[in-house]
Protein 1
Amino acid sequence: MSPEFNFFQHWYPLSPIEDLDPKRPTPVTVLGLRLVIWKPGSSGTYRVFLDQCPHRLAPLSEGRVDEKTGNLMCSYHGWQFDEQGLCTHIPQAENPQLVAKNQQNFCAAALPCCQENDLLWVWLDAKSAELAAVTPRPLSPQVDASKGFVWSSMVRDLDYDWQTLVENLADPSHVSFAHHGVQGDREKAMPIPLEITQSTSNRIEATTVGRFKTKITFEPPCHLEYAIGFGDKGQQLGLITYCIPVAPGKSRIVAQFPRNFAKTLHELTPRWWNHIKIRNQVLDGDMILLHQQEHFLQQRQPDESWKTVYKLPTSADRLVIEWRKWFDVYCQGKLPWNEVGLSRSEKTTIDDSRQELLNRYKQHTQHCSSCRGALKTLQRLQMVLLVNFILTISGVAVMPDSLRLSLGLPLMAVALLGLGAFAWLKFWLEPRFYFIDYVHADR
């Protein structure tokens, strides 16, 4: 019998470092475990604790980083914890020695964590810190500036399960159709000869041949990567994804997008613009398809397996088949939700609101420092343009007749241009941080 895969004894990236706020705790969930990310005042690196105060189990993510001590303070009763999780202060303690004598008993649960490749990583099993120390992170060789690569990153929460996310990413043939007009072209779709070159308990590799030579690697439990080579100058484009299981029917993708060409364009393109124009559209294109596919699969799985439910006759399906076999053999086709007190409940409906399924603000913008900052800036700019228009109209109205033509007319023209800019920001750009419906039939 194959050994059971231990999902808790692996490294998971929680977020790009640049999206974390060093001044306040950030909650995040992985495999049903609620965690809190925070940065001690005396440290240059973030820490990850279980999101529970040992006093009365209040969420530490609702706490704050104390300005005087730099420690994490629980907002319920003011208990404080240092970067190792040791309790340093209990405001209610009558005896000052109470804390010193009971530090180990009163400590918060700190998890092994580190920062590497611009990501914050966590090891979910606090009891195997020694194993974590000798286990390498599933890093990509493409995220390496010394090899000429540049890259950007993105995080988004998704309304479908971890296994649905991995399966979708293991399927290169859907791009031409699900992402038509964004990253694909259905008119140019063609067979994808795909060959499995390695398949073990800890690694699956596949390659494609044709115009673009592509290597696809799955390194369980979360790392799935594309390395796409083309041209005669060694150009390479990458897609590095980390598929994070959050809860039954919920997942998170942490992605990096490296390339070794067009570096100037990369430097000139704002990260937030790349997110609203391409990255979010790609994920929108999958969202409703996968949400409903997952529902239909769950309906039939009590009586059938994926082997009979799915029809997978082409070479392009080989990696999906290989991954499903791996999941069956090493994970018995399920994630360890029962170990964290969760049950795999089926979705009761597929009629979830499109506004909720494609809610970019909830799933991405609120987590992304670049998009949050851009949204705040454009909202302020809208206010400036609107106030300028009102003041200009009012000023021109009270101008002497002799000045209205020479001075008032140019001012009105500028104000009207500003009003046009306001309308563009308000009705075209701002919605892209919140919700844009993705209707495949209209593309």
Protein 2
Amino acid sequence: MSATAVNVDALIDAAKGRVTPLIYTDPDIYQLELERIFGRCWLFLAHESQIPKAGDFFNTYMGEDPIVVVRQKDGSVKAFLNQCRHRSMRVSYADSGNTRAFTCPYHGWSYGVDGQLVEVPLEPKAYPQGLCKEKWGLREVTRVEIYKGLIFGNWDAEAPDLKSYMGNMAWYLDGVLDRREGGTEIVGGVHKWTINCNWKLAAEQFASDQYHALFSHVSAVAVLGAARDAAPEDKALGTGQTNRPVWETAKDAVQFGEAGHGSGFFFTEQPDANVWVDGEVSEYYRETFDEAEQRLGRIRALRLAGHNTLFPTLSWLNGTATLRVWHPRGPDQVEVWAFCIADKAASDHVKAAFERSATRAFGPAGFLEQDDSENWVEIQKVLKGHQARNTAMCLEMGLNGERRRDDGIPGITNYIFSETAARALYRRWADLLISDTWEEINQRTQKFQEETVK
């Protein structure tokens, strides 16, 4: 075990709610993350709706490795390292499209959509000794699995299968993916922007932190609530039952945190979305509630607000239709990719309303997104100081309040204003970095979960 790995374990004491923020700044830790987290966890690649036909491709990343996801002739999906085997140039540059081959612009090596090397310019003269093209195809991502339209990739042949990896988090994810017959699709393109902060700040907030909304977003919520009350007939401003904060009116609230994954939501009695969601979206949720309730049960069908992270970097917000990936770009920068995800069965008019709502609130210039980004950037600035990045943070909220519910909501839970999911995320993060095998990782996770719920 490397010295860095030992130090990582010393920086996390999840049982006591202690995290040393050096984990957000250290370049050696970051390199270890690329190897042991992004090199062996399941990572979201694309939605099936983005590559519907044979030859369709979508370019993305696994950590900092460029990846091209391709629909095959037989309808299956493969993913490849976007790297020519000759001199490491990219072979695919467009964000997405349809192609018969990927050709390197440097020396012209050409690969089929199945990743096989099919053409080498001047091959007889340049390689008189012969070139075994079968050996030099694009490097294929070891494992690709699809869950209800979402395509995931994993480099590690020994990792658990995707459903086992998701565990109880699949129950929470289904609340977005399985509301209506036909599933979901991505609407519009992909918003991309960079934030000068560590990727874990964003992933943790979406896993665990509803607490910040009381303060960071209070002005936006107050303005929208006041506007709605002043003009209730204006559907574009939302159609909630009251402008009192949901944490004051909800009858119950849950935070889930397990194996690095996290989720939080309030229980509501009416299928009304957040105040910043377009009124047409709120109306759509009410009109389709019966179908969603039949498919998901009442609790999940009513869940039209809430935050979620599937460890390490896939996050989404219920009701707001934003799905995003936190692509790391060094220890102090993250590239955000935000997608609008909507029910495939919705009308084009409603899908446009979904996209409008998601962009307005959580696009790169969204009035809520900017609050979050500013917080994370300021934290990263503070952590430039030697004393600051070595001063432990307090993650004790809700400590020892974890329990397993008996009402069908799965996993280890707590009240929403807790840091159960944050503690689970950082413990899983550390276990991945210090463990050599998935057996060891899972043993550590199991031990922590048993100690968490007495």
Protein 3
Amino acid sequence: MNVAEILKGKGGRIIAARPDDTIESVVATLAREKIGALLVREDDGRVLGVIFERDIVSGIARAGAALLKQKASDLMTRNVVYCSPRDSIQAVMERMTERRFRHMPVLEGDGLAGIISIGDVVKARIGEAELEARSLKEYIATG
């Protein structure tokens, strides 16, 4: 299974913030959408960075409530790691685990195809394991 199959089931909806949005606005969007990360994009769609829940928690630990008035561009992670729709679930899971993040944008050509989470990856992997188990049980039962 690959990333394209996850996006097929999940869709390619991308929720983003603008670089001048306040962290307060970013937090409101994360809560409303029940997500753990937001891409930070220019008006032309170019990705500048990503804000993870962990960035916000760390920022509050350093700056307190004053952080909420800062801009998304002040807090975002600038080195965005992407995957491709052709990447395997296993490869993406390894990259997420190695880099210690739970969300990864999917880049197809010059454009974004969507964003996947570790939850999406684990769900896909469980689906694969269940299919393998069913296939083995059928093979044993008919063999």
